[in-house]
Design goal:
This is ChrR-like cupin domain-containing protein. It comes from Ditylum brightwellii. Residues 15-112 form the ChrR-like cupin domain. The chain has one helix and 14 strands; from the N terminus they run E-E-E-E-E-E-E-E-E-E-E-E-E-E-H. Strand 3 and strand 4 (42-49) form a beta hairpin. The protein has a domain at 2-115 and 119-124: Jelly Rolls, CATH 2.60.120.10. The chain has one helix at residues 168-173, and strands spanning 2-3, 21-22, 28-36, 42-49, 58-59, 64-75, 78-81, 84-88, 93-94, 103-109, 123-126, 133-134, 138-146, 151-158. It has 179 residues and is mainly beta. The chain is globular.
Length: 179
Amino acid sequence: MRLNSNFNLFTSTNFSPTKYIPSPSNGVNRFLLDRIGTEQARATTIVQFAPHCTFPKHTHIGGEEFVVLEGTFCDEYGSFPKGTYVRNPIGSAHAPYVEGDGCVIMVKLLQMADDVGEGTAPLYVHFDDERKESTEYGSALNMYCNDQTGERVQMCWVQPNTLFPVDDYAVIGGEELFV
């Protein structure tokens, strides 16, 4: 399957909860944003977990990163509430589950650069982190940065009627925005 897979083109997708599709795991639904491949795919997806559902233990052959949008995401490493960014590097493994509140995440799979020395320990950063910096457009929080690969993950809070600037990262390597 190929969906919004030409990353040299601008694309925009409007989310609709009526367009979730079921995953192979019971109680897990997906809204596809981009995808290259079948079940184990390079993908960006909004995933909805029903209350009390589990997902089988799996290894991240190309890494995984996600933001908890609603509820609480759990695995053997902890419980991560709304507003948490989780980065599971290549080779990491976990068995996710959701308790009574259900959960919605925006997840990116198989998109990490290989052999950048990250190891396999997960990274967790919460939005309420006090490292938020003031910017010309509002504020920003750097969640992850790797100068070797040029990758930067940043959460931005943009004030109404303010332009969001294009920076050097976007000009050189492109930019992906989730609003």
